[in-house]
Write a structure and sequence with these properties.
Blueprint: E1 7-22, E2 27-43, E3 47-51, H1 58-65, E4 73-78, E5 81-82, H2 88-94, E6 98-101, H3 115-125, H4 133-146, H5 163-175, E7 181-185, H6 193-210, E8 213-218, H7 221-224, E9 230-235, E10 238-244, H8 245-250, H9 255-262, E11 312-316, E12 319-322, H10 333-338
Helix pairs in contact: 3-4, 5-6
Length: 339
């Protein structure tokens, strides 16, 4: 998907800390630093993917952007508007332009409502169309056909659909108000592999038809490869690398990205791929390690890594990574791994 140079979304120093209460009075004694000061832009018409292990803060980032969870600190500017300064009513209007597709297609739909009720609700709230029953049914029917379902299914309940069909309903709900930006929070991770491909193709088709911009959140780099324009890699609440898709897969700039890429199964006959197994557990986001947060698990750790947080080093246009090993230029981690 071709992108423009216009930043639709600008995230600056975003933090999402969750308080830990303790003591008789229930005072805040510490914080879980789920997202700890990240900055990035999303450009019109592109798909920016956010990847990382469970607990890295990628889904929390998506929820903070749309204010499903109120951010602890930072700035979120969308299309020239500061989202964090908007009141409740203003933010509700803004959600017409920013929608989210949730991970679990079973939990995200109200089992007591029909598909018609689920999809027409957003149209009513955002005052789209004349909101007569005939107009609403026409619009809901068009939405269902757009995502590959039938108009005749609008009076059915969620339990009458498969997981893939439910996710299509979730996509139709996000699409109903014609948003500019859709956050796809692990939108295909709960689906079978064959269904994943169908939903990914649907998302790409909708992007072309309606000029959509996506933030695609996933733990699976194999899935991300097929839909992304740029990729942002997170570890323990921090961004460690951001790159266009091609550069990241050909020349990863951070050891963590290199390890993630090594876990993707090879599809080539007879190709042997050495997997980098990270030792130890992900540190606690309550008391993250000093210096580089990845140094406790990094196979190429150096003394400097535990003392100082690395800056971002530019590897090429649009490709940056935060690793002390890059201070003298790009590094071939595959050669380092075999020595």
């Amino acid at each position: 998907m071709a992108t423009t140079n216009n930043a639709l979304l600008e995230v600056k120093d975003l933090k999402q800390y969750f308080p830990i209460k303790g003591g008789v009075l229930g005072r805040t004694i510490n914080h879980v630093k789920a997202v700890d000061g990240i900055s990035f832009n999303v450009y019109e018409g592109e798909t920016l993917s956010i990847v990382g292990e469970s607990g890295c803060g990628k889904s929390t980032t998506g929820r903070a952007i749309i204010r499903l969870d109120e951010p602890f600190a930072g700035e979120v500017n969308f299309n020239g508007a500061d989202l964090l300064s908007l009141g409740r009513g203003e933010m509700r209007k803004m959600r017409k332009d920013i929608q989210i597709i949730f991970q679990d297609p079973y939990a995200s739909l109200n089992p007591r409502q029909t598909v018609y009720q689920i999809l027409s609700e957003a149209l009513k709230i955002q005052k789209i169309g004349d909101r007569t029953q005939s107009d609403l049914r026409r619009r809901v029917g068009e939405l269902l056909e757009t995502v590959g379902l039938g108009e005749h299914q609008m009076d059915q309940f969620p339990h009458q659909f498969s997981g893939g069909q439910r996710q299509r309903i979730g996509i139709a709900r996000a699409l109903s108000v014609r948003p500019k930006l859709i956050i796809c929070d692990e939108a295909v991770s709960a689906l079978d592999v064959s269904i994943q491909a169908q939903v990914l193709n649907l998302l790409k088709d909708l992007q072309r038809r309606f000029s959509l911009t996506y933030i695609f959140i996933s733990h699976d780099l194999g899935v991300v490869r097929h839909i992304s324009d740029r990729i942002l890699v997170m570890y323990l609440g921090k961004i460690v690398e951001i790159s266009d898709k091609t550069s990241l897969f050909v020349n990863p700039g951070h050891p963590y990205t290199f390890a993630l890429l090594s876990s993707i199964p090879s599809t080539k006959m007879g190709e042997k791929k050495e997997r980098i197994v990270l030792k130890g557990d992900v540190p606690s986001p309550i008391n993250p390690p000093t210096g580089c947060r990845f140094h406790t698990r990094c196979p190429f750790v150096q003394e400097e890594c535990s003392k100082h947080e690395p800056p971002f080093y530019k590897l090429s246009d649009g490709h940056e990574a935060a690793c002390h090993l890059l201070k003298n230029g790009p590094v071939d981690f595959s050669k380092m791994a075999t020595t």
